[in-house]
Amino acid sequence: MSADSQLIREWIDKADHDLGSAKLIFLHIPEYFDTIAFHCQQATEKYLKASLVYYGIDFQRTHNLVYLLDLLSQKIALSEDIYDQAILLNGFSVQIRYPNKNVYLTKEELELSINIAQEFRNLALQMIGIKE
User: Fold this and answer.
1) N or C end of the chain: smaller count of CB under 10 Å?
2) To 10 degrees, the CA torsion angle through 84, 110, 65, 85?
3) 3-128, CATH topology level
4) What are the distances in angstroms from CA 53 to CA 10, 85, 121?
5) Strand locations in the chain, DSSP E?
6) What is the rounded CA–CA span in Å between residue 49 and residue 45?
7) Closest Cα partner for 64 from 80, 49, 81?
């Protein structure tokens, strides 16, 4: 396995942990909406970073999903819908973890966030060529 392949796998594994955490928390303590939303954003960020590594695109340390998509769009065509989904999750990055940034989400909004993160997972695995 090449160094890049190993790094891609590590990004995917970390992203899967975030997405799995979001799903488990949603099932067992859905009132932790900020934590669920944060993990959805984090998972999406890591799936995008795995894709960037796959395409050999350097990126800065950031939580900005739109920036990561802009970089990725240099190699593949991305829909406006993908950007809209990223913009939704962008608001759930690190800032949501602090007391002065309270965000309250409904069950439907949390389900949407989880579904978006899952879609980004599917997209990343498809781009990278990982079959399950």
Assistant:
1) C
2) -20
3) Four Helix Bundle (Hemerythrin (Met), subunit A) (1.20.120)
4) 11, 21, 15
5) none
6) 6
7) 49
Using pLDDT thresholds of 50, 70 and 90, give the confidence band for residue 2: low
Ramachandran category for residue 114: left, alpha or beta (phi over 0 → left; psi -120 to 50 → alpha): alpha
Rounded CA-CA distance 103/37 in Å is 9
Name, in order, each residue with C-beta under 8 angstroms of 82's C-beta and a sequence gap of 6 or more: 69, 123
Of 95, 120, 79, 81, nearest to 37 by C-alpha is 95
Name the amino acid, one letter, at 63.
H
Distance of CA 95 to the CA centre of its chain: 15
Residue 30 structure tokens: 């859905």
